[in-house]
Amino acid sequence: MAGLPEHLLRRSAEARAKAEGRDVEEVLAELKGEAPPPPQESAAPAPAAADPEPAQGDTAPVEAPAPAAAASGPVRDLEAESAALGVPVSLLQRAMEGRARTEGKPIPAMASAPAAAPAAAAPAAAAAPAAAPAAPAIPEGVTTQRLLTVVKAGAIQQVKSSPQDKVSVWPHLLAIEFVALMVVTAGLIVFSVFVDAPLLEFANFNEQPNPSKAPWYFLGLQELLSYFDPQVAGVIIPTFGLIGLALIPYVDKNPAVKPSDRKLAIMIFSFFVFASAVLTTYGSFFRGPGFNFSFPWVDGIFFDF
Amino acid sequence: MANGNGRVGLRERLTQAGDHIRTSQVWSSIFRPGSPFRAGYTDSPRNRSYVIMNNVLYHLHPVKVKRHAVRLSYTLCLGGLSFFLFILLTITGIFLMFYYRPTSPQAYLDIQALATDVAFGQLVRNLHRWGAHLMVLTVFLHMARVFYHGAYKPPREFNWVVGIVLLTLTLLLSFTGYLLPWDQLALWAVTVGSNMGAYAPVVGDQVSFALIGGVQITPDTLLRWYVLHVLFLPFIIVVFMAVHFWRVRKDGGISGPL
User: Fold this and answer.
1) Measured torsion, CA atoms of residues A139, A141, A147, A148, in degrees rounded to the nearest 10
2) Which chain B positions have a beta carbon within 8 Å of A185's beta carbon?
3) Residues of chain A with C-beta less than 8 angstroms from the C-beta of B85
4) Which of A122, B4, B65, B188 is the most exposed place for a label (fewest CB within 10 A)?
5) What is the second-level CATH architecture of the domain A210-299?
6) Closest by alpha carbon to B113, among B55, B165, B32, B181?
7) Do residues B188 and B101 both lie within one domain?
8) Same domain assignment for residues B211 and B131
9) Which residue from B111, B148, B160 is facing A248, i.e. has the nearest CB?
10) Is residue B255 part of a domain?
11) Please, what's the b/e burial string for A286-296 (b: 16 or more CB within 10 A of its CB; e: otherwise)?
12) Is residue B1 part of a domain?
C-alpha cells in the first residue's frame, strides 16, 4: 500500500474496522502490510488469489449467502442451460442471482464448480461459500487506483450563454413591419393625392428668384452662410460635421448605454440636432427677399419643397 | 358535396380548385416548407422558424429577435422605413423614367406632361417627391434614434460609419434629383447648393466643374445629374445598404435593451 497518504489509509482502516467489527489498529497494520491478514476460512481460497490481477477487497459481495442456504435451494445445471440457450454461464448466473435477490429467495446452488469458471466469470466466485469477505490480497507496491485526469475549475469553457428573452420574427416582428409599411404607404398616397409636387416656370438662367433657396436639408448651411465666410459655412462646417459624426464611436469611449450614464454625450449630440433644426427652420421660414429676416405670417412663406 | 339541386356549388368548386393548386408541384416548389401559403401549414414553433429560414427575408432577419426589439417604441421602424422608402422610390422612379428625357427643354415639358398626359403620372411624381423628402427625414431620425440608444458602441462602431455614408448618399440622391424637373425652383436651388461646394479650398473649382459639368449649370448638368441620380448613386447606396444590414446581423442583432 505504498504511496497512499497516511490519513487516507487510516480512514479506510476505520471504515473497514467498523464494518467488520475489528480493531482499527489491527486493520491499519494489515493495510500497511505490517501484519499478516487474519487467518481466513480455507473455504475461500482459490478464485481471488488465483486471479492475476486481484480485485479489490470491496468487490467481494457482502451478501454472499451462507453455504447452508445455498444448499437448500434448487440445484440448477448452468452449464447445460448455457449450452442450450447460447448464453455464457457468467451471465446466466448473474441473472439468477439478481432474480433471487429481488424475490428475496436464497440463491440456488449451481452444478458447475466456481473454480472451473473462466477468469471472466470472476464474480461468480463470490457465490462460492465464503463466510466473510477476504481481506484484500494486494501485493506490496501495487496501486489499485489510477489518476485519469485533473480538471481545474476554470478550465471548463462556459459555452452556454445565459438565456435571452426572444420572440419569433414571424409573426411578431414581420406583422409590425408590415403594418408600419402599409400605414406609411397609405399616408404617402393620401398626401400625394391632395398635395402636388411643386413645378414652377421653366428654368431661366437670366432670372434669379428672390430669395433663392437650397433644398430644405441644406437650408441650415445656407443660413450659416449669412453669418460666416463661405469657406467656413459651406465647406468646413459640413465636412467636419460629417467626419465628426463618423468619429463618434471612436471618440465616445464610455461603454454605458443608459441615458443617465452618458449625459454629456447626449447633451452634445442634442445640442447639434437642436441647432441644425433651429437653423433649418429659420432658413426655411424666416428668410424673405434678399435672404433677409421676415415673419412668415407677415410677408408670406418663401419656401418650396 | 352537392347542394339541394344535386349539383356541386360554386364554393365547393373553388375550394377544390384551391386545394388542387396548393398541392401542385409548381406551388410547392415556389413556397418552401414552413411558408404559410403552403398546403397543410400549421402554426408551430418549427414552422415559425422555417418561415424565416426558408425565405429570402433570412438575409434581413434572424429567426428570433430579443423581445424588446419588436416593440414599436424602441426603433419606431425608422431604419426599416428608410429601406422601404428606398424601394418605393426605386419603383416610382422607374415609372418616371419611362416619361422623362434629361434634355432641355424636354425635361420640363415631360414633367408637365406627367400631370396631363400620363395616367397616374402626377400621383407617381408626387409619391416620388414626398417619399424622397420623407426618406431624408427617416434616415436622419434613424441616426438620432441609434445615437440615443448608444447603439453605435462596440461592436457596432463601423456600422455607424456605414450609416453616416448612407446618410450622405441619401442627401446626394435627393439633391441630384432636385434638378431634374428643370424649373426655376430646381435650377436655383441647385445653383445655391452647388455654389457651396465651389468654396472648398484647393479643389473647390475642380469639384464644382466635375459635378455640374462646366463652370455653371447648363443642360449638360441635367444629363450628368440624371445619370448620377438613376444609376450611379443608387448603385453605390445599395452596396452600402447591403453592408449595413449584414453588419446589423453580424454585430449581434439590434442593440439594447437599455
Assistant:
1) -60
2) 88
3) 184
4) B4
5) Orthogonal Bundle (1.10)
6) B181
7) yes
8) yes
9) B160
10) no
11) bbbeebeebee
12) no
Among chain A residues, the shortest Cα distance to B103 is held by A203
Residues B23-44 have pLDDT tens digits of 999 999 999 888 888 888 889 9
Give the C-alpha distances (Å, rounded to integers) separating B164 from A13, A265, B156, B230, B250.
Answer: 77, 18, 13, 21, 19
Identify residue A134 by its one-letter amino acid code.
A
Which of A17-26, A84-93, A102-111, A160-169 has the largest mean confidence? Answer: A17-26
B104: nearest CA partner in chain A: A203
Q: What residues of A are in contact with residue B173 (Cβ under 8 Å)?
A: none
Domain spans of chain A?
Answer: 40-142, 210-299
Start-to-end C-alpha separation, chain A? 97
DSSP A228: S
Interface touch B84/A207, C-beta < 8 Å: no
A245 contacts B70? CB cut-off 8 A:
no
Mutation target for B interface from A165, A167, A169: give the one with most B CBs within 10 A.
Answer: A169
| Separation of alpha carbons A6 and A77, rounded Å | 48
Asked if residue B240 and residue B115 are part of one domain, the reply reads: yes
pLDDT band at A59 (very low <50, low <70, confident <90, very high): very low
* CATH for B222: 1.20.810.10
Residues on chain A touching B105 (C-beta within 8 angstroms): 202
- Average pLDDT value for chain B: 91
